[in-house]
Amino acid sequence: MRDEWFLAAVCFLASAELAFGDDRLDHKEINPRKLEEAFSEDDEIESDEDLPIHERGPLRGRRQLDLSKLDMSDPLSVTAASKAGQSIMVFVDIRGDPTEGERDQITLFWEANLLNAHSIEAKRFMIKSDRVIFQLDHGENIIELAAVLRREDRCFSFEVESVYFLCPGHPQWDPKNPSATRKSLKDEGKWKGNDWRPEGWKERLEYTMDTEDKLAPKKKSNFKWKKSVKTEL
Q: What CA–CA distance (Å, rounded) separates 130 from 128?
C-alpha cells in the first residue's frame, strides 16, 4: 500500500511538471526518500499483518517464505523471495553526468533489454538526470533486472529495500564479486569511501548509442551490370 501511495505521488508530480513546464517543478527538487518516509508516517491504512486473522484478506499472490532455501549471504535473493508477488521499487543511478535526454535513451535501452531477454515489463519514473526508478510488479523479478544492470558500464549502482548494490559503472565494482553491497564491503573493511576513484578513472562515458538506422542490415542491390558488346564495323 505504501508503494502504491508513493508511486501515485511521483506520477502526480510528473504530470504537474508537464502541465506547468520545467520552471515550475525541477526534477532535482523531488526527494523520493523523504516522500516515502512521509507516506510511511501518515499511512493510517492497516496492512493484513496488522489485522486479526479472521479479518485478513487474500494473500494477493504472496508466497510463503522458506528460510531454509534462502542464501542469507545474498541480500538480493532474500529480497526476491520476501517480495515475491509484490510490487517493488528499484532506484537506479547512471554513471557520469548524463543529460535528461541521454538518461531517457539509456534507461529505455535497459528496459527493452529486460523485456527482450526475460519477457519482464518494468515501469520507469524519472527522479533526476542521473537517477530513475524501475517499478516491478513482481518482486522476484529483481534477479533478472539486476542481471541486466550488471552488464551495463553506464549503470553506476542500484538500491532496493535500502540495500546499495554496485554495478560495472561504479569505481569499486568487482566482476568477481558481483553480489557485493556497500554494507558488505564496509563490514569486510574493503569500502574505500563514496568519493574514491582509481587512477585514470573517467567519470563520464561517451553517451552515444546506435540508432535503428545503424543497426538495420544494409539492403543488397539487385542491379546487375550488363557486359558491353562490341560491334564490328
A: 5
How confident is the model over 162-209, as pLDDT tens digits? 999 999 999 999 999 999 999 999 999 999 999 999 999 999 988 776
Distances from the Cα of 175 to the Cα of 2, 32, 124, 125, angstroms: 35, 30, 26, 28
Say which residue the cell 535500502 belongs to: 162
What are 105-139's pLDDT values in tens digits? Answer: 999 999 999 999 999 999 999 999 999 999 999 99
> Is the pLDDT reported for residue 48 higher than 60?
no
* Alpha-carbon span 123 to 108, nearest angstrom: 10
Using a pLDDT cut of 70, give the percent of the chain over it: 59
End-to-end CA gap in the chain: 94
pLDDT digit string (tens) for 52-69?
A: 434 444 444 445 555 556
CATH fold, domain 75-188, is: Alpha-Beta Plaits (3.30.70)
Q: What angle do CA 178, 180, 185 make, to 5 degrees?
A: 145
Residue 172 β-bridge partners: none
- Pick the closest to residue 92 from 72, 110, 105, 116 (CA basis): 110
How far are the Cα atoms of 17, 82, 110, 117, 164 from residue 148, in angstroms, in the given order? Answer: 30, 21, 7, 9, 16
Question: Between the CA atoms of 172, 173, 176 and 180, what dihedral angle is there, to the nearest 10 degrees?
Answer: 90
For 78-82, which contacts have Cβ atoms below 8 Å and span 24 or more sequence positions?
A: 79/139, 79/142, 79/160, 79/161, 79/163, 80/139, 80/140, 80/141, 80/142, 80/143, 81/140, 82/139
| pTM for the predicted model, two decimal places | 0.65
